Write the structure tokens for this entry.
Amino acid sequence: QILYLKPPWTLANLLKCYKKHWMAVFGYVVPRSLLSTIECLSKHLYADKPFDSSTVRVLLQESKNLLHAFSCRSDYNGVLPQAYAEVTKLCETLGEVRAALVEQDLSEDIMVLSENAACEKMEATVPSLQSTEEKELHPSFHVAQENRHQEIWSVLEGVWNTMNLYSVELFQKLDPSAVTMAAKATFEEAFLGLQKLLAAVKDIREGIGR
């Protein structure tokens, strides 16, 4: 009777209901600071402009934060873990696409460097060109280094997303009221996954150390 918008709801309607009833209802179920997440989703999903990959990544991560917060209350008859898994897949797909683009850019930079090196070898008879070559190569190497940083960030983001996914699985396994889904990973699989994750983090730490 007091609901701001009556069902059936669209996503836009749900976000409006969240904001309208946040302090009186939803703020008692999940952390109230997540209102910024609702506002972020509402602002970007219905803006009259195309998304770039960075915005999509932010929206997916904010969606995962919201789903994870509600999962601490209930799995909502298995619907919430399924939604979380789908958003996680989208995050992984986006990460793969971004990594592929980075790799493509890196390959193009290497090709440009190779072409420059061939031209510079032909002109190497002029000693005065040596300092010019170093100045021309420097920006390209800088781009390659920047791409490497993005590649490392993509790997760390993948580790973080995996850790979040298994955390949700473990919380649900430890909650006696949670409904077990056939497609959901078993406790043993989750434990083995955490062991693999631990090894991956160890490899990353050793790599950073090197």
Remarks:
- The helical segments are 11-20, 35-45, 53-71, 79-122, 130-174, 187-209.
